[in-house]
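**Protein of interest**
===
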Amino acid sequence: MTTRNDGEDRDDLFDLLYKRYRTRMLRYFRQVFHLSEADAQELTQDSFLRFYRAMDEYRGEAEWALLETIARNVGYNRVRSISTVKRGRIRTESLDDREERHDPADLEQRHPIDTMIETERLRRMREAIAELPSGQRQCMQQRLEDFSHEEIARALRISVVAVKSRIRDAKRALREKLGDESGLPEE
């Protein structure tokens, strides 16, 4: 195995492990967290970046076990960021915000079945939102990101009344499709 006497050796080791495990990690994110190819690529990059930052602590053993642990924590952070509840609504966060806001130990305390149920619920919610008509989908996505009706209206260049109407119709459609599990507020 390559030694890490200087920055060049460190970079060579990183390149070797990246080439060896990139595809496996992409598959891991798609299968375990049911992510799209784009999301899996994004989280794979984030995972390898975290590995690179922590390489000084890497002893050269159990390559996949270490990378899988990092990937699992990154995936759990994504699940948490999607399912963060604020005033009864799902609130998405930027990947850049995750490290500052979440303690990885929080999710490790949860039972794996609870995590799987929540992951499945969120997957169904994302799919249902993706099937909404374009105007409803845009309004609902921004509302779930905690934008006000006025902010959505400005961003989409429509009236506040139109925003409220689209969100109401989107919620009705989501409740019909998902039932009570949608977790959408009544507003």
Summary: The domain at 1-115 is CATH 1.10.1740.10 (Rna Polymerase Sigma Factor; Chain: A). The chain has two domains: 1-115, 131-187.
